[in-house]
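[Automated response] Your request has been received and processed.

Submitted sequence:
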Amino acid sequence: MIVDHRIAGHIVDDEIHHYVVKPLQAGARLTAIFDSCHSAPSLDLPYLYSTKGVLKEPNLAKEAGKGIIQAVGHYARGNVAGVATTLFGFAKTVLKGNGAYEHSKRTKTSPADVVMWSGCKASRRREYSSHNVVRLG
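Generated structure:
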């Protein structure tokens, strides 16, 4: 097991999932609590629930809105390359659809009862976050 991240590197979510979650059998229960920066994906579980208990799934309409706003911003600044990059990225997301999400559900779902509480979103540092999430798999 990695003891010193400066020498061996950080422990990534795929490794934690492989060694901690994957071996669990049906009937086993794991409840994990992470209170660290970028902790939301720590166990690499496929399902994400809001603090209200609602399953959060990929939302292509929301991604489209973000993409359009980013493209308009790039256009307003005269950044033609940024407009093209944003639009091509959005097109790739639409064409790919929910493929990555579906793949994650197929490969990361556990027969065990696994619940992970996170003190931080994947993109946030702990001291700036007030949005706790619950991951289940």
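Summary generated for your ticket: DSSP finds five helices and five strands in the chain. The chain has two domains: 1-58+108-137, 59-97.
If you did not submit this request, please reply to this message.
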